[in-house]
Amino acid sequence: MATKLAEATGSPAYTTKVTAMKKRLDSQIPDSLRLPREIVDTAPLDVTGVPATTGLLTEKELAITALDATAVCEKIASGQLTAVETVTAFGKRAIIAHQLVHCLTDIFLEEGIARAQELDEYYKREGKVIGPLHGLPISIKDHVPLKGRWASAGFLATVEVSKDDCLMTSILRELGAVFYVKTNQPQSIMHLETHSMYGRTLNPWNTSLTPGGSSGGEGALIAMRGSCIGVGTDIGGSIRGPAANSGIYGMRPSSKTLPMKDYLAYQFGADGVIASTGPMCSSARDIDLFISKVLAAKPAQIDVSLVPLVWDIPQSFPKKLRVGIMEHDGVVLPHPPTLRALAAAKAKLTASGLVEVVDYKPFKHDLGYDIVRELYFEDGAKVVRDLLKEAGEDILPLTEWVISPPHTKDHDATSLRALRKQRDDYKDDYSDHWNESGCDVVLCPPFPGTANPHDTAKYWAYTAIWNILDYPGIVFPSGLKLEPSLDVMEARSSFFSDADKFNHELCMLLFPIPENRIELATDDAQKMVGAPVSFQLVARRFNDCVLVAAQKLIEGILTE
Amino acid sequence: MATKLAEATGSPAYTTKVTAMKKRLDSQIPDSLRLPREIVDTAPLDVTGVPATTGLLTEKELAITALDATAVCEKIASGQLTAVETVTAFGKRAIIAHQLVHCLTDIFLEEGIARAQELDEYYKREGKVIGPLHGLPISIKDHVPLKGRWASAGFLATVEVSKDDCLMTSILRELGAVFYVKTNQPQSIMHLETHSMYGRTLNPWNTSLTPGGSSGGEGALIAMRGSCIGVGTDIGGSIRGPAANSGIYGMRPSSKTLPMKDYLAYQFGADGVIASTGPMCSSARDIDLFISKVLAAKPAQIDVSLVPLVWDIPQSFPKKLRVGIMEHDGVVLPHPPTLRALAAAKAKLTASGLVEVVDYKPFKHDLGYDIVRELYFEDGAKVVRDLLKEAGEDILPLTEWVISPPHTKDHDATSLRALRKQRDDYKDDYSDHWNESGCDVVLCPPFPGTANPHDTAKYWAYTAIWNILDYPGIVFPSGLKLEPSLDVMEARSSFFSDADKFNHELCMLLFPIPENRIELATDDAQKMVGAPVSFQLVARRFNDCVLVAAQKLIEGILTE
C-alpha cells in the first residue's frame, strides 16, 4: 500500500463541511459492497486485479466489466445483456474500485439501476433500443452537471447539487445512457493529478503514483473497469494526461466541437485558451461511438458557441499517411520507458511500409508553454485565492505551483491584448512550421514519462502545447509498461531546461538503477514500476476525423 | 453639390504627411481621366449618372461596367471580353467615380492592366483561364494588404506600403483576380461612415449623405460601377452598413470562415468580438462566386484560426422556409422608408405562399449593443488616443463618439472576464430566443433608416447586434428609394430610448414633411432624397449556406 499522503485541509468551517461531504460519499457505499479493512490495507501497489478477487462480482459481472462501450451497446441492443445487469456490474465494480483508488465524488447506483429498469422495460415493450447508447453506463467528471447530483468547480465554495443536466449529459441521457457515479478532479481542476477535498485518487497500476488529472477519477475508474466510458475535460492535458497514466484511451477534440454548455467553472468568460470535453474510454472505437452519437444530436443548434464539425471518418487516405515522430519537445527529455516505446513504434511503423514516417521537430514548445500558462489565469489567479478564502480552504501544493509567478500576472486590458497577440502569432508560426513538415499527424509522448509519484506533475507541455494550438489529440496505450530490466536511466550532466533537470532527477531517484550508476534506497526502487506507457497522436486543428482514422491505422500497425 | 464639410486635421507634421499622401493620390489620376472642375462643382446630388455623361467612357466600357462579377468572369472565360478591356473599363470608371465621391486611397490601374495583359496572353496561349476569377477586377479596402500598395489601419501612424499580399489577396490573385484600386475607410475603421485622412467619401445617390462605413469607399465605388466586386470587413456593420447605404449587395459571413490573416489592425490580440471579411458586390450570385472560390482554396489549411466551413448551398429546403420579420429592434424605430419597404416585403412574401412569414421579436438588443460597444475597446481606447497622438492626428467626431464612456472602460483582467461572461450569457440567451422563434432567417433593417447625413451615424445596433452574436448577414437592395410623397414622418411624443429620439429628430429635420406637421427650411427638404432602401437577412451562426439560399429565394419572390 502507498505511503499515507497529506490530505487537503482548511479552516474549522471547511473541515466541518468537508467531513460531512466525505461522510455522505462513504455512506453511499452499500454495506454489501464494502471491502474488509484488511483487503484495502494489504492491497498490492497494483490494485487492478483486486476487484476480481473480492468475491463480490459474479463471473458474468467480471465479463461485462471487461467490455468496451461499443460492445456493451451492441450486446444490449441485441438482447444479450440487459441494461440492469450491465449497470449493476459496472456500478458494483466502481464502488469496489473507489475503495481502492478514491476515484468517486458521488455514487447513485440505485438511481442508475432504476433508469436501467425503465430502459429494459422499454426494450421489452417496443422491441428496440431507445437510442444508440441504450443502457450504457457512463461515468461523469465532478464539474459536469447531472440533475440532482453533487458537482463542484474544484473548490469547496463551488460545491452544489445540480438543478439540471448540462447539455452534454442531457444529450447522453436522451441517447439512452445511464448515470451512476461522478468522478474526482483536483482542487482548481488545474493539476495534472487528482487531489481534492474528497481525497487523493491513486493510480490503479501502482498506487504510489498519480493517475494524472484533472480527469484522474475517470482515468482510474476506467482502468479499474468500474466504467467503460466517461466524460472528461481538458484545457492543459486533463483528458490525455490521466488517460496516459492509467493506460486507457482518451481524446481531446478540437475545442468548441462538443458541448460544454453549463459545465461548472470558476472563470466564466475566460477565453484566452479554451477547454474541450471528450471521452475517456476502453477502446479507440469507443471514441468514435461517443463523438459520432453526440454530434448526431446537433448540439451546435443549442450551444451557439459550437462549431458544427462534420463527423465523417475517412476509410482511407488519398495518399500514404505522413506520420511525424516527436521523441521529445526540446525542453524536457522523457523518461526511458516513453523513449523506448516511441523508438519501437517508429521502427514498426517504418517497417510496415503502410505509412510514411518522418522525424518531427518541435517548434518553440517552451515559448508556447509559457504563453498558455499565463493565459490560464489572466487575473494572476486572484479568482483562485478568493474562492479558497471564501470557504477557508487551504491551497494545495500543485494549485500554488500552477498559479505562481512568473507564469501568472494580474493583467490589464493592454497587457492582455499583447499576450493574446503573442498567442496568435505563436499559433500562426506553429501552423507554418507544421505545414512545412508536411505531417498529417504527429506521434509523441503525452507526458515526459509514465505516471509520476504524487505531487510532482509539473511539466504539462507535452499536452498543453496542443491546447494553446487547439490541435486535437488522442492518447492510447502502447501496450508496454515500465520495466526495470529495460528502462535504465543514464546519468546526464547537461539539460535542456530546469524542468528537464527536475524531470531527470525525479527519474534518477525513483527508477531502478544498476548499482554502478546511482545507489537508491531499496524502498524507492520499485516506485514507478507497473506504470503503463502511452502514446499521444495529434492532428491539425479541426482535423479530428483524420486523427481518428490515423489513430486506428497506426494502432493497427503497432498491435499486429 | 453637397455642402463643404470639415476635413480631418492634425499637427503641422500631420498636415505635411497627409498633404503628401493626398498629392500622391491625386497624381495617380491620369490627365486623360481628370474631370473638368465644373463637372465636379456642378454635379447633382445624385452622381451615379455622371460617369456616363463625361464622354470618357466608350459604349463598350459602359456596358462592361454594368456587369456583375459573375458575368465578367463568364464573358472573359468564354472569350467575349479580354481582361485588359475589362480592367480598363472598371479602372477608368473608378477614377472618374473617385473625383465625384472620394472613394479611393490608392490607384494603380497601370499595374492592373499589365497583369490583365499577362492573363490575356495566358488565355491566348493555353486556351483556358488561369483560375475561376481570371481577369476579374477586384477593389480592396485600405487595411487589406496588397503587395507594394499603400495600406493603413485607419490612422496616419499606421500608414505603410505593404511588403506582401495578405492571405485573402494572395488567394484572389492566384484565382486570377486583378487589383487596381484600394478604397477609403474612416479614421479608426470604427465609424459607420467613411471619413479619413484621405478625405470624406460621399454617397453616390445623394452626396449630402454618407455612404456608410467603414467599408464606405467600397460601397460608393461599386454603386458608381467603378468596381463590380470588392473586399470589405465588418465588426459592427462595416460591410452591411455601406452596402445598405449605397444600394448594393454585401455579406458578413460568420467570423473565422474567410481569411483575415495579415489584414492591418491596431488592436491585434483583441478578440472580445471578432471581425469578419466578405464581399461587397453587384448581385447575390457574386456573393456565392466570391466565397465559394476563396473557400475552395482551403484557407483554413494556412490560417489556423479559421473554421473550415463546408460551402454547399442547398438547392431547396426540407420544409417551407420560416422567415421572421423584425420591423424594429425595440430600441430605435427606423425611418419611414425602411418601414415601408419591410411592410411591402412582408405582404409580398406572405402572399406568395412560398415561405412561412412570422413576426420576429428582438431579444434585448439594447443590452447586446451595450456589451458589444464595450468589447470594441477593452482598454478604454487608450490604443486609439496613443495612435492619434503618435502622428499628431486630431480625433474625428465619430471616433470620439465610439470610444467615449459609458461604453468604453479601461478594464482589468477581472472586469474583462465579467464582461465576456456577460457576452457569452447574452449569446446563449439569444440563441434560446431565436430557437423558440423557430425562424430559419430573419429579415430586418440594416440601419434605423436610409443613408444619414454625414457625421450622424451613431446607432449601429441593427448590424452590430449580429456581430456580437456572430450571425451571418446579407444586405441587399429592396429596389425602393426614399420618396418624399410616400415617406412621411409622423411626430412622436414618446420614444423607446434616447437613440430613438435622436433618430426621430434627425428624420423630422431632414425629411420632407407636409406643412401641417413641421415646417422645414427649403434647403433641407430634399436632403435624404434618393437614398436606396435596403434589407438585411440574417441566419444563425455558421448557417451561411442556408442564408445564401434563403436570400436567393426571398429576393426572387420580392422581385418577381
Q: Can you describe this structure?
A:
Chains A, B: This is amidase. Chains A, B: The active site is at residues 141, 214, 238. Chains A, B: InterPro entries: Amidase_CS, Amidase_dom, AS_sf. The structure is a homodimer of 560-residue chains. With 560 residues, chain A is an alpha/beta fold. Chain A folds into two domains: 16-38 and 48-300, Alpha-Beta Complex (Amidase signature (AS) enzymes), CATH 3.90.1300.10; 322-559, Amidase signature (AS) enzymes, CATH 3.90.1300. Chain A is built from 19 helices and 15 strands. In chain A, the strands form three sheets. In chain A, strands 1-5-2-8-10-9-14-15-13-11-12 form an eleven-stranded mixed β-sheet, sandwiched between helices. In chain A, a hairpin with an 8-residue loop joins β3 (150-151) and β4 (160-161). The interface between A and B is large, with 43 and 43 residues.
Q: Total number of helical segments of chain A?
A: 19
Query: How much beta of chain A, percentage-wise?
Result: 5-15%
Q: In which range does the helix fraction of chain A lie? A: 25-40%
Rg over CA atoms of chain A = 22 Å
Number of E-type strands of chain A: 15
Shape of chain A: globular
Average of pLDDT of chain A: 95
Q: Biggest sheet of chain A, strands in spatial order?
A: 1-5-2-8-10-9-14-15-13-11-12
User: What is the terminal separation of chain A in angstroms?
Assistant: 36 Å
Domain module count of chain A: 2
Name of the CATH class of the largest domain in chain A? Alpha Beta
